[in-house]
Amino acid sequence: MRVKIVAGNWKMNNDMKASKSLVKKVGKSIKNNPLNNTRVIVAPTFVNLERVVKKAKKSAIEIAAQNMHFEESGAYTGEISAKMLKSIGVNTVILGHSERREYFGETDQLLAKKVNTALANELEVIFCFGEVLADRKSNNHFNVVESQIKNGLFHLEANAWTRIILAYEPVWAIGTGETASPEQAQEMHDFIRKIVAKRYSQEIADEVSILYGGSVKPSNAQEIFSKPDVDGGLIGGAALSAEDFKAIIDAI
Ligand code: PEP
Q: Whose CA is nearest to atom 6 of ligand 1?
């Protein structure tokens, strides 16, 4: 049975004190609440990762990184490797976020390399993709999403898919307050499952968790999560408030 996941991407927010306090609050809030086949993940910025990992140890929260480099090690000033993440107890990494693609020029080809390095180091990958508004307006969104998934992931062997989580994040809905309708999310998630089934197998397609991301908040989470192919959310803004994040976890 595929797993439901609520993941919070803190982006470049929260200093050390705020990060520790937020993870503590979220941990407390889910403590007495059985999670029922649901994983809760938060992704702080690099400098706070180790402390947040320690702080979250006794809770059900898992910690992810927001990025990593594709090389194992070497002269890459300012970069962080997969092994460094593993060495501090991080087991999941977000790759392909639209902000990385847009502001840091991350291409499908580069992301495919990052995916390979992450998996080679036994990291699990939350792989993000999604169309910009112009693609949706010109009805090109299915093609864009298919090519991002194909280029980033379809070179993988079937057995790698147990360590892949997909996150459909229409760029026009990220941080804009505008959300894809539950029907738009379901339509795309169904399409994604079909292309994974075609390339691999129905079993793999049925097992992979597909998260929706883009202005999910307590007021809309339940409706989005009620769709059969939406297995949870990747949450930006609303993950910065323990109360809102908890309400979104409850919605699942
Ligand atoms: C995100 O950046 O992954 C995201 C979904 O952000 P927000 O929830 O703020 O739209």
A: 236
Pairwise CA distance, residues 222 & 124, whole Å: 26
Does 220 sit in the ligand 1 pocket, CB within 6 Å?
no
The reply to whether the predicted model has a pTM over 0.90 is yes
The two three-digit tokens of residue 195, written as one number: 């292309």
Most informative mutation of 5, 6, 9, 126 for ligand 1 (most atoms within 8 A of CB): 9
What letter represents residue 190's amino acid? Answer: D
Query: Side chain identity at 136, as an amino acid letter?
Result: R
The answer to whether the beta carbons of residues 19 and 51 sit under 8 Å apart is yes
User: The domain 4-251: what is its CATH number?
Assistant: 3.20.20.70
- CB of 171 shorter than 6 A to ligand 1: no
- How many residues in the chain? 252
What does the pLDDT look like over 171-185, one tens digit per residue?
998 878 778 899 999
Q: Which residues are catalytic?
A: 97, 169
Which ligand 1 atom is at minimum distance from the Cα of 216? 8
Rounded distance from Cα 10 to ligand 1 centre (Å): 9
**DSSP character at residue 78:** T
The predicted model gives 50-61 an average pLDDT of 94
The 10s digit of each residue's pLDDT in 64-118 is 999 999 999 999 999 999 999 999 999 999 999 999 999 999 999 999 999 999 9
Q: Residue 36's beta-bridge partner residues?
A: none
